[in-house]
Design goal:
- The chain has 188 residues and is an all-alpha fold.
- It is built from 9 helices and no strands.
- It is 70% helix and 0% strand.
- The N and C termini lie far apart (69 Å).
Length: 188
């Protein structure tokens, strides 16, 4: 008989390790119990079903990728540096969890897709907020960079959309995007 798990966090760590090595789609209650060295019932004490487990794992991975490191490290960066840092975080996430970005969209049952989308949108809102803060506090921005036709929020939305496109296309860097942004925002 397996011992009981002492915390939900330990199960999440084991689940994320499984997601790294075998992919999100391979994450099952029994495989998690085996990896954590506990009885299956112990997993059910913390996660009533597979969708609850997947939701918790996806949320934890999003948090690990973008909330901790991105918030602290972009606080005193210029905008283009923050964009480059965010792209690097995406690259790290892809390296750590190779199927995460593709799989997390399709692993949820139809009834849980809305919760998964909310998790993603919360993370995306957090990222956009950090980018907007970096833009608003960047002392190098030209005074005439923003007017009625271009707002800071619009530029952040444009930038984030293009970061997503780069990530979806498998781009290895975001140099072209940051060069365009630099030419738009900074004096020569």
């Amino acid at each position: 008989m397996h011992p009981n798990v002492t915390s939900k966090e330990k199960l999440l760590l084991a689940a994320k390790e499984l997601a790294k090595t075998e992919g999100l789609s391979a994450l099952q209650m029994r495989s998690l119990a085996s990896a954590a060295g506990v009885a299956v019932g112990s997993v059910y004490n913390y996660f009533p079903n597979k969708n609850a487990l997947l939701t918790a794992v996806v949320a934890s991975i999003w948090f690990d990728m973008f909330h901790n490191d991105t918030t602290e490290n972009t606080r005193n960066m210029g905008f283009c540096d923050a964009v480059s840092h965010l792209f690097a975080q995406i690259q790290k996430g892809i390296a750590a969890y190779p199927d995460f970005f593709a799989a997390h969209r399709v692993i949820f049952e139809e009834s849980e897709k809305e919760n998964a989308l909310k998790l993603r949108e919360n993370t995306f809102s957090h990222i956009k907020k950090n980018l907007l803060n970096a833009l608003e506090t960047d002392p190098r921005i030209r005074p005439d960079a923003f007017d009625g036709s271009l707002t800071q929020k619009a530029l952040v939305s444009f930038t984030f959309t293009h970061l997503l496109a780069l990530w979806n296309s498998g781009a290895k860097d975001c140099g072209t995007l940051t060069t365009i942004l630099s030419k738009l925002l900074y004096s020569a």
